């Protein structure tokens, strides 16, 4: 149960809101590189944290992210001419560079200095492995770009995708802090309908113990299922500030090769982009690992969606899968979270033991919001190059021998590195 | 003319509103049995008085009506697994019975008592002749289910249907208290376009006298048209609390065989379900009496609707019918009431003699609302089994001999019963 | 930059708003004659300044414009029977004439005087050259219908059209006060993609001097482009109260034959009808001059619109036209103004020299609104038949010889008349 005021505080991210200010302290995924594939290609509209923006790639390949409406009289720059290192408004030809400088105001007298007095709102971007990140906060507070493991790999070892969801971002983040739902939402009854790991391990024990450990980056979340013979099924996943889940994928066998990141970027308070990033440390992504394409249609909209009830098949639900909505975990998550409504009223919920990490994540966020309001720097803002290292964000799926402690195993894994493990 | 405050009072029915509280004192149609035809079939979403609910039929055939969102973390139970006498949420497997008891919280530790502390909002239901009724009020005030004549008949003697309308419920109820409109809205100019009674009787006198008589159940409404030769065309219909019209159908010949009930159940304040129930006392409904099927499409939406201007045919309007929108009275009513707008502002109306019963009905409702606010029990709440008898709600269409008084004839009809009459 | 309060003041036009009151002082285009082509034809719904109305042509050919909802109980008169010089409501047969008199209330007793006590809101109309104008203000203040040049011509010399736009009316009016945008928004790069005038003249000098001259009717706007050889490209257009642009069309050659009027009538505050009227003084409109037909689909909606991004073609934008959205100026204008959003927040704009006339127009309007609030009559309300003459509203596109003053040329043009010039 979250009081209405705290629910309001956590779920509102528009300009000027406390949670919006917190989100704007971090680099956030803004769009995929493929949306603006080449220099001087057509711009695209981007809606982020309730702001209307336009992204374009200039002649040199640099990405600009500008307020959508022209500083002159407000015409959308989306229709603009992307030419010669700048975006030019169709109405009177005002031209902007990626930094928001006004390069030209051709309808003004030739000696006009107007353009030197105007600065158009523009946001710094960073392009990594096919994702364009942006920083929407105050310019003097811009942090370093965090060197997550996947950001250091060649592009072909990283698979990136995104999908539109029709609910508040927090409903998505909560799903990342919720190990128990693996045993239900994603459960398959038959071999054929099984994907995404080792279902028997989830089935054995549907009530895992969940232990959230506060870290400098957010939460390390340790879940343990009873294997029945003294062994335990250990999963380690992470909530990474302010809106990311770092989760093991590939099951017992595959999970040492890499892991997945799910990031929930508010479009506005009732819509969210879910970015999905998977990587393999030592090899290229295989074609069969690109699992989202067939679920995602034009505009990165889900083919199975809230309007068509996710094409739920009640016969399949009876015989093959718990949910009856295919086998793609992303779609399952969307059904569970979108069907809560646009912004779930958490004053009506009933939390249990299985929600321990969800509770911890909300507290972590609330504390960060309140600290920021008090002028204290939020966690996981990278400013020291020496500390721009995140190898301690580990993701694990592992059968723990009898009597091995999860903490011990995690420490060993970190010290030896995933390859050795 | 209704002052804005009274209009507001009568038209708002959401949780916590005075009129909403009044409505919640009664059994209301919630869905048709055919929407959940068999044990363990897929659940359906139900929106009632602004509340989002889910209905399901359990393994034993009992109907449950639950708040749509899971008590745990709010996922929609519409996607739930309907199995073994309970509805199970897809997210973490919480399972509910038709009474809102939590049967299982499998993601909680095996010795958890959480489920015993939670009670999910559930509403009592009663299934009669193909209609599922629900009671949404306080549990300690639940009334008896009223033994209307049609509820005592075999199912094949009752024809039930429903249709979605895009306006406030009160606009529908007013149409039931409005005998005069028969002579206009439903008028046919040719034999071929005539249905629903004896049009010549409406045409003869388009300005009936209307007399509303306050009764324990609502209003008995007596309308009399001058037959021209000393005779009179008598119609008796009824406003039955809180949202029903009981009206004669079948014309002079047919009306003694049974009558029709039109009930307006708010979906929310700008949408309403119109339930239509007709019955024949001594025989099965004939196929040609099932007159709504061809007018109603998927989702119980009208094929002729506000968006397509009810497919009005101006040529037909010129030559065949007053309205030019086919011959189905239900569609005519919808056009007249939906085209008033989502919630009609009654401070702009001009009432006449022909609106006498409309005025009386609003006063009856306003008094009931105010009494309820003062802690007095509203009318037509059945609590005494001895008084659960409604044979005095009579519907009549009759040619009155010269000099016969309507009141006298009605009394005689009640004492002798429709068969004799 | 317009402060939020003044932006609010200028853009809100519903009943009771100051700008709405100002608009209601003038005759405004309400619909095209072709929408109600013949006596007793079907009525049409008309939404104007946030009011819901119905227009019909009676048996004698007169046009009525009534509040849409019946004075009785609010049913839409759009479904009404248009017969025998009146519009009759389908619900209870109340009948109205074009002046709002109630001719019949047939459901009332035969001796009822109710109809004499009711007056239905009706608005005076005037039909000119295929446009139906209406006056929505107080009856005792009704002005003369202004004798603009085009209103005095035979119908075949006038081309009228209208189109729906998805933004506030003021964004449209501003485009009429903005000579500079011709050089950008409407620019063509190739001969084939050139329409609407003499593009070279716009291209030569993209930063015209703009001089707004306050007049009794609004503003005369004089723009001058440097021809490079001592000559100047002079354009004279006009803002005519309260929502009209009178602009030269046809280029240097054609502009003396007539001009165009663009009138922006609010549907509500986020939608507007743009009426387009062109005329030729001495000849019929040619078929090839009817340039809007192929851009306008059912319901007068644009085929290229905000939803489909005006079917912008980025290849065309690169090679043929500045905007990449065909060659029709009306569509270009729509893209520039609709893409500002439903109601542009002018506190975010940056105005330059090129916006001189836009600024002057807003000031003119603001002053008129404030004067009206102070009880002073707004400009361009015609009450004196002697002064119902607007030959001084001239539209010009002309190459000015070296050293000729624009003012001198305009005076000469007015005194000699367009024919001589």
Biggest interface in this structure?
A-B, 38 and 27 residues
Shape of chain A: globular
Helix fraction of chain A by DSSP (H/I, runs of at least 4):
10-25%
Low-confidence stretches of chain A: none
| Cα radius of gyration of chain A in angstroms | 23 Å
Commentary on this structure:
Chain A is of the alpha+beta class and 421 residues long. In chain A, 20% of the residues lie in helices and 24% in strands. The first copy, chain A, contains ten helices and 18 strands. The first copy, chain A, has helices at 4-11, 18-23, 114-117, 169-176, 199-204, 251-254, 314-319, 329-338, 356-373, 406-420, and strands spanning 27-32, 44-48, 51-57, 63-67, 81-82, 87-88, 95-96, 102-104, 125-128, 131-135, 158-165, 209-214, 218-226, 232-240, 244-248, 259-268, 271-279, 396-400. In chain A, the strands form four sheets. In chain A, strands 11, 12, 13, 14, 15, 16, 17 and 18 form an eight-stranded antiparallel β-sheet that branches. In chain A, 50% of the residues are buried.
SSE arrangement:
The structure is a homotrimer of 421-residue chains.
Chain A: H1 4-11, H2 18-23, E1 27-32, E2 44-48, E3 51-57, E4 63-67, E5 81-82, E6 87-88, E7 95-96, E8 102-104, H3 114-117, E9 125-128, E10 131-135, E11 158-165, H4 169-176, H5 199-204, E12 209-214, E13 218-226, E14 232-240, E15 244-248, H6 251-254, E16 259-268, E17 271-279, H7 314-319, H8 329-338, H9 356-373, E18 396-400, H10 406-420
Antiparallel strand pairs in A: 1-10, 2-3, 3-4, 5-6, 6-7, 7-8, 9-10, 11-17, 12-13, 13-14, 14-15, 14-18, 15-16, 16-17
